[in-house]
Specification:
Length: 377
């Protein structure tokens, strides 16, 4: 085991958390709207033990490089920045390692930059493991909050809380319907046949367009308050008032707001359809969501668009980018039965290779469980 090989002793605790794909609700989370993610089988495992006060000793299977850092100071890079943020948040909450330091080993099969929430899997697993070193008293929702603040406040990714809540609360064969403004949630049956097509195009969210889009949404809210003074969240704009929204906002704020308001309605309706097993109608919403992301939010990429259009022609019920966009993966909803699945896989691989000279990674997806404590050895 990595921890024992690096630190010479067994870890005291370990925890793991999953990656996720988002069925509907792209860029609605930080706008106070609903989301509909499922956890997937890939996971990040964090093993932890004691270390000198104020010190974080960290190693990861991703690079095999040992970091020894004072987590209380800034300027930390790589996985250490996320775990240092978790340590600072736990210290502020009066929990975490009792001596104020920790040694940590990270192993993960969640791809980085693929839109599968690798950073949330890391921060949620680290929050659980490091809390277990101390009191172990934090609930799954509280751990999600710690992980969110670590990424948002300390690393600087202006994300919403969807990824962390999904990693903490997910259940097998269920999607998590989460209203991000209130954090009200329920689990929705999700046994639909799904494929995940990883385009291999990676994004860097902390310094990329995600922060720009969030700033645009905040600017839209500021302008729309002239029309609706009590407005706090862009997702709360009444769908029946779209003409007023269009008149009030210049481009590109108008397009960003139209996407958020439309995606909010799609997600709430989609949760109802999924719960009733109406997969064909649900799939139509996936196609609509992707087109909105492509045209209004401008967060797609040519590789993603190619996969979606090819899957549609091959008989998929729905397809859309998942995980913010600008690269990453496409989620494909299939009808039941293997014939269409084989056709979709074959045509997506062929079309992608013709366009880009390589085949995308394609895997089946099933809703999996969330955060859990792991045995140590």
């Amino acid at each position: 085991m990595l921890f024992r090989a690096t630190f010479g002793v067994a870890p005291l605790v370990a925890a793991s958390a999953p990656g996720r794909v988002n069925l509907l609700g792209e860029h609605t989370d930080y706008n106070g709207g609903p989301v509909l993610p499922i956890a997937i089988a890939v996971r990040t495992v964090v093993a932890a033990g004691a270390a000198d006060a104020g010190m974080l000793e960290l190693i990861s299977t991703r690079d095999g490089q040992m970091q020894r850092i004072d987590y209380r100071s800034g300027g930390v890079a790589g996985p250490g920045a996320y775990v240092a943020g978790v340590m600072r948040e736990l210290a502020a909450a009066g929990t975490g390692p009792p001596g104020g330091g920790a040694s940590v080993a990270i192993a993960s099969d969640v791809p980085v930059g693929a839109g599968l929430a690798s950073s949330a899997a890391l921060t949620v697993a680290a929050a659980r493991a490091l809390d277990l070193l101390g009191s172990g008293r934090l609930t799954a929702r509280q751990l999600a909050g710690v992980a969110f603040r670590a990424e948002h406040d300390h690393v600087g990714v202006r994300c919403g809380i969807m990824d962390q809540m999904s990693a903490a609360l997910a259940r097998p064969d269920r999607a998590l319907f989460l209203e991000c403004a209130s954090l009200a949630s329920r689990h929705v049956p999700a046994r639909a046949p799904l494929l995940l097509v990883d385009t291999g195009v990676r994004h860097q969210l902390a310094s990329g367009a995600l922060n720009e889009r969030r700033a645009e949404c905040e600017a839209a809210v500021a302008r729309l308050r002239l029309e609706l003074p009590e407005l706090r969240w862009l997702a709360s704009w009444p769908a029946g008032w779209l003409p007023r929204l269009k008149r009030a906002l210049p481009e590109p704020l108008r397009s960003r707001a139209l996407h958020v308001v439309g995606e909010t309605a799609r997600t709430r309706f989609g949760a109802q359809l999924l719960a009733r097993g109406y997969l064909k109608r649900f799939g139509v919403l996936l196609f609509e969501s992707h087109e909105s992301c492509r045209r209004l939010y401008e967060c797609s990429a040519p590789e993603l668009d190619l996969v979606v259009s090819t899957a549609r022609r091959a008989g998929a019920l729905g397809a859309r980018l998942t995980g913010a966009g600008w690269g990453g993966a496409v989620l494909v909803l299939l009808p039941r039965g293997k014939a269409v699945e084989a056709k979709v896989v074959r045509q997506v691989r062929r079309g992608f290779k013709d366009a880009y000279g390589r085949e995308p990674a394609i895997s089946t997806v099933r809703a999996s469980g969330g955060l859990r404590r792991e045995p140590v050895r």
